[in-house]
Write a structure and sequence with these properties.
This protein is mainly alpha-helical. The protein has a domain at about 5-60: Arc Repressor Mutant, subunit A. It contains 5 helices and no strands. It has helices spanning about 5-15, 25-30, 35-45, 60, 80-85.
């Protein structure tokens, strides 16, 4: 793919704010014909400038608490090495 230009960056910026925007609306915002906009969008996807389309779920609407489990593995359990690595007990 050629180097990104201002329009490509504008497309990326708009998609970051609204991944559900229609191609028609996107084309309008970047002043392109819908077919040209779709071509640019497909090129961005094919060249991995976009890694997917996501949504954020409002967890407060679904549940009151979220539990997070973390696992820590240590190479050595020597107290001095823990302190040297920035872990203090």
């Amino acid at each position: 793919m050629k180097q990104l230009d201002k329009i490509d960056y504008k497309i990326l910026d708009i998609l970051q704010k609204d991944g559900r925007i229609t191609n028609q609306e996107l084309a309008c915002q970047v002043d392109l014909a819908p077919s040209s906009c779709l071509l640019r969008l497909r090129n961005l996807e094919e060249n991995n400038y976009l890694s997917g389309y996501h949504t954020r779920v409002n967890l407060h609407k679904i549940c009151r608490f979220v539990t997070c489990l973390a696992n820590v593995n240590l190479k050595n359990h020597i107290h001095q090495e823990l302190n040297d690595g920035g872990l203090y007990f």
